[in-house]
């Protein structure tokens, strides 16, 4: 299991390097995970897909990446983040190259299914980074690592541009090369934190123990909403903006990438605030702001107001993401961080899988996205009530155990 007792003199020199390597590796893997979404409108036109079929296509990597986090988190407790991150990145090259040559809907679905592995690397990075830092600095450290979400924004900007300028296969080749570099870097120069111990219990035992913790279940629900909302908008916003506001594919993808960038940049801020004032209050206020923004954008206001609404929503979701993992780093026993991350991360990914499907079905049936966005507002309001009146009171304002 991953021991996190402080070993200050031996860890200081390696912390920054470990955090930088993990964040860069996470960003590259997230770019791979998000390769299909920016090209969704292109595949829709080339293959004559319905809105629902496109929704399924962009959501498939999300669901696999979600469930895969359970397995990779547990394996990281046993084998360490260095080995698991290196191997997962190298294996991720296979579906990326396959998708470069995929020319049918079934082939794209198959490639997207395996591509989900790259999104599961999040569950490797959290225990890997967590083990390097003392409790009072984990919120900020995990928030910085979470900035690897920027890979989704990189995909939104770079994937359509590379495809338009150099051909549809080129972004896949670029990402494959980056995955090889990351994988080899982890295996060659990466190091696990000093004092790390290998887990010996069977996978099911560790998974069940982590899932039984009340805090794990609570954070899983909150992450399903905050990170799930981030992923859902990251993958579906280009289609939404194109359909509702008539934007070009490139413009819609760029605006969606801006959403992802802001949510990514505010994530370490959420972790930093949680280290100082407590994760539960930060999470509660973030949910309140997200609720307000969801109500505003559900009415499809003029583009300037919609832009502000979506950007503030992005910031709120990013702050919430940072607060969730600041709480996880402090509240979950050190020996269970990898397994608990798998549970919480899986819930977050599943939270990103369902909304695009629901939005696609609602739009196909009604020609409007308003109902789907109002559902988001309703769920967010319920989460705020629980966080403010139950979670915050139970663990205390400073995030200590009650």
TrEMBL record:
UniProt KW keywords: Membrane, Nitrate assimilation, Transmembrane, Transmembrane helix
Record flagged with keyword Glycoprotein: no
Gene3D superfamilies (UniProt xref): MFS general substrate transporter like domains (1.20.1250.20)
Main location class: membrane
Record-linked InterPro entries: MFS, MFS_dom, MFS_trans_sf, NO3_transporter
Membrane topology of this protein: Multi-pass membrane protein
Pfam families hit by this protein: MFS_1
Subcellular location: Cell membrane
Transmembrane region(s): 16-36, 56-76, 83-102, 108-128, 140-163, 169-189, 220-240, 252-270, 282-302, 308-328, 340-363, 369-391
Domain Major facilitator superfamily (MFS) profile: 18-395
Highest taxon, organism lineage: Bacteria
Record's keyword annotation contains Transmembrane: yes
Family the entry assigns: Belongs to the major facilitator superfamily. Nitrate/nitrite porter (TC 2.A.1.8) family.
Protein name: Nitrate/nitrite transporter
Lineage of the organism: Bacteria, Bacillati, Actinomycetota, Actinomycetes, Streptosporangiales
